[in-house]
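Re: HT7 structure - here you go.
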Amino acid sequence: SKYIKLEDYKVFDYEIPEIFMDFVINKNAVNVTTKLKLVKKNKNTKNLILDGTDILIKKLFIDDSLIEKQYYKQQKNNLKIENIKKDIFLLKIEGIIKPKENTSLLGMYESNGIITTQCEAEGFRRISFHADRPDILSKYTVRIEADKNDYPVLLSNGNVLKENNLTNNRHEIIWEDPYPKPSYLFALVAGKLNCVKDNFITKSNKKVKINIYVEYGDEKYVQHAISSLKKSMKWDEDKYNLEYDLSLFNIVAIRHFNMGAMENKSLNIFNSKLILANSETTTDEELERIEGVIAHEYFHNWTGNRVTCRDWFQLSLKEGLTVFRDQQFTADVHNSEIKRLDDAKFLRRNQFREDSGPTSHPVMPEKYQEIDNFYTTTIYEKGSEIIRMLNKLVKDENFYKGFSNYISTYDGKAATIDQFVDKILEHNKEIDPKKFKIWYKQNGTPKVKFKRIWDQTDEKLTIEASQSNPIKKNLYNDLPLIIPINLAIFCDENKTIEKTVVLKTKKQEFVFRNIRSHLQIPLVTYFREFSSPVEWESDTTFEEKFLILRYEKDFFTLSNTVKVFYKKIILCRLDEKPDHKIENKFISTLISFIKNRDINLSLLSELLSIPTFAEIESEMENLDPLKIYKTIDELNHLFGTKLKEELYFKLQEIETSLDKVWPEGKNERKLIETIWKLLLHSDDEEIKSKIINYVDSNSMTLAKAALNSFSRINCPERKIISNIFFNKWKNNSVVLDSWFSFNASIEIDEKTNSIEKLFENTYFDSKSPNTLRAILNTFVTRNSTFHAIDGSGYKYIAKKIIDFDKLNPIVISRFIKVFSRYNYYSEPYKSNMLETIKQIKKNKLSTNTKEVLDAIIE
Ligand code: HT7
Ligand code: ZN
């Protein structure tokens, strides 16, 4: 079968305790000589099959004797050696690879003259032959040799053992990594890079050298990355008692990179946009994200590297856990309530969308074709939510004890999700590990229903809860999950009872006694702090929801309730039946939020933000996209007009804080973006001239806020500010991507495809996934011409998909999910989309993209 299945897992026939690699970098190719120390474990085999793709074999040796050609067979993706008599031997493979010809950004490739590697998940096999699976852990020694002018910097994992000058202006360096690691954590970088140095003293007083390598000229942008790294190192010591284990930590910034970053042992490689940052070039949100990703990759040193995954079905063991840790970190160093709100929003918008569509899968999938397609928000963010629930269920003391136990038990080994959960639940009597693990096997978003039964005389409130899963195909989906529910019972304005209850069966009753309430029926809010990754339904009326907006303090619940109102208002308008009563009352509530001087301004910005098309799209059925865009524009206009006075007042109040240095002033800057957008949509000319001045601001947050607030405002000023931004930033490729994105959002008219000229722009770099994503993702989520009624937008994007899939399958197989909800669209959009998908399918596509397409139309 074309699927790799979890149930087929078998240990490999050999162990590879040591690897010696020799890289000779020449002009057009790299000679790679690998010596694998092989120890046979399966006495019944005489064969050895290693993975390997696009490697030219020059010679093979076993213990220095040449293997004649008839004893080995090279196929497209592997190498088979037969009749091996020895149990322990050294296999030497001399191969040649061509990084300059590699556009996939996997294995070894070149980016702006710099040679770099990306081995996760299965890229190592494009560098050398290997079992290339995460349960083979080896000690690596690596020699790199290259021309001194072209490649002055030569990096790999671990410590430098030796450095020498050679003849012909060449040099060599030998790296040794003392910690056994799987092949996906191997890395090599060679090129002209400048190094910014710093250091960190660990809690046991060890000095760790920090070196950040960037292209010449970019040195001035690395201070944020350095301070983020040092914060992360300290936090991991304080929170998890985990100390860095080597005396050198390198980070390299690379322009052409498929994902955010990679946690290679002691040599993290980052997409430049996640290293090069300061408040002049980077928004507040990006600064926080960069800090979070640097932390994430650093935290992998223990959760992923020292304890790794047995197989790729366990991917969430390292990714879910490390996301959980980076979310905790950001919550600790910034505002935990806002962070929770942001994480819940992200999950609901992205993971719920994925889980209700054709590519829905469990956090521990049962099968896959291309593992690269499984670096999903389900594995990462839902994986993190599951660990958050575990933490909540066993409480902090047990959680951290279990965690430490997990680390010490599996240090230097490859582990499974089962083993992790067992360690956390080891000393717990209330939670059955077997039942909890169902979270990893179900797909789809579980749904919980609540009903209140109020007995005023007995002062007894009963809450009936039931759970179900909308997806029936997966047999595990019929089993009940263990669901922690944070709830609040509001008896009146001043009396609130907060509780965590645990739903363990399909139906359950929770009884609360001695409830004295003046309300007709006590008001209950569920899943406060978004305590479980589920959807829910309750008997709360809209009248009561207005009360929630008065009584609640929990940021998530407030923002969720506001979202319910926006959705209701949008739905009524889509039905051509605007509910003016609710609209007016809701607007009055928003006014009281604006007038509340104590409210967190980031939260206020959240409450005042009308949902975007992408948010609505992920939650609706029978979608009419053009109508949705129109309704959202109308609402921005209406709310901007009705809230004008209060918004102007708030604007004045916060303007003095705009110049503060991040993280100071970030809430004010976030709010100003929301206010600008609303006011601009209310046809306010005064605000227009005010905003334009900020496009040139020395705060990128304000500059981009100014630029983006014009995205859907068709006026001559839009072109002017776009030009100002372009001319200022055209030589900074990281910043310029925002300009590409802004322009991809602009609708000229319903027929004109405004974005083709972006691909023709001299500054467009077709090899840069960042730019490609900036244009494509924005066009499909923020530009309604994508949904042109004649299907031309879909056809246009189809062509881009086919072209770019040849260059970079990882980027395209992710992007193609834009068509995954075609079934939720109304006609003619649905048929147009389906037709487009079928047309795309007729082309020769990468296996990555094909697997996703097959899921979309079975
Ligand atoms: N662990 C890293 C994943 C990753 C990746 C996966 C497939 C292809 C390219 C990739 N680059 C990085 C990043 C992380 O989650 O930390
Ligand atoms: Zn990760």
